[in-house]
What does this fold into?
Amino acid sequence: MKTDCIDLHCHSTASDGTFSPTQVVKLAADRGLSALSLTDHDTIAGIDEAAAAAQAAGIDFLPGIEISAEFPHPATLHLLGYGIDPKSAKLRNLTDTLLAGRDNRNPKIIARLQELNVSITMDEVEQQAGGNVIGRPHIAAILMRKGYVSSIKQAFDKYLAPGGLAYFDKERLSPPLAIDMIRQSGGIAVLAHPSQLRTQNDAQLETILKNLIDLGLQGIEVIHSDHDQAWVTKCIALARRYNLLQTGGSDFHGTNKKDIDLGLAHGRTIPREFYLALINRLCSIRIENSQ
Ligand code: AMP
Ligand code: FE
Ligand code: FE
Ligand code: ZN
It folds into this structure.
C-alpha cells in the first residue's frame, strides 16, 4: 500500500550503492513509498532506469545527484541537486568534471595499497564498481572480501578515510561552482546532511548556511540517517528562518551501509510534503525561465 512517506536521498550501483536503480525503486515500492529521488554521487547514469522502474511501479520519481564540494577536513560539504535535467549539456559538463576528479585519485589509492603489500588492482576495482563512478566503498568491499579488514568501516578507518594509510583526496568543486552548476543544470541545490559539516556551534553552522544561500542554495536536508532529534529540530528552525525548502532521505547504500534502510532515517519517515514542495518550486523555476 502506498503511504505518504518518501525518500529523497539514496544511492544505486550507478555510484556506491549495492542495489541496481531498478532494485532500489522496487524496494521503495515494497516499503510503500510514494516518491523517490535517486541521488547517486557524481552521476546520473542510473536516472533513466530508475525513472522507468518508478513509472512501472506507480511511484513518483525526481532525478537527483549528490556532489562533494571543497570544505576543510575532516568535515564534508555535500550538495544535492534535485530536478536536474538529464539532457542538459551543463549537467554533462558537471559529471565529466566530477568523474575526472575520481579518475585522478583512485589509481593513487591503489598504488599506495600495493606498496603496503595489499593485493589489489585497478581492474578489480573497476569490476567491483560496475559503472563509471568508482568510489572508496568499492575498494573497501574488495579489502573486506580478501580478508584485509573485517568490515567496510574498518577499511575506511585503517586505509581509506582521512588519516588512513592509503588516503588521497579528490579534486572537488568549490561551493560557488557546485551550486551554480546544479542550478544551470535545471536543478535545486540543497545542503545534504548538515551535521557532517561538523561545526563547533550553532552560530558557525548558521554562518556557513547564510554564505551558501548567498551562492544560490535553496534547501536544507532536515531528515537524514545521521540526524538525531536535536539535528532535525535545528535544521527545521534554520529552514524556517531562511525560507529554505526542507528535504529528507535515508542515504541508503544497500549493503555498503548495512544499518540504513530505505525510507527510514534515524527511525524517522520522510513526509511527502517535502517532495511536493520541491516539485512546486521546480515548476516555478521552469515558468520563470520560459518567460
Ligand atoms: P568517495 O566518493 O570515493 O570519496 O567515497 C565517499 C563515500 O564513501 C561516501 O559517500 C560514503 O558512501 C562512503 N564513506 C565515507 N566514509 C566512510 C566511512 N568512514 N565508513 C563507511 N563508508 C564511508
Ligand atoms: Fe556514498
Ligand atoms: Fe553525502
Ligand atoms: Zn548520499
Observations:
- The beta strands are 5-7, 35-38, 60-69, 77-82, 188-191, 219-223, 245-248, 270-271.
- The pocket of fe (iii) ion (ligand 3) is lined by residues 66, 78, 192-193 (CB under 6 Å).
- The mean pLDDT is 96.
- DSSP finds ten helices and eight strands in the chain.
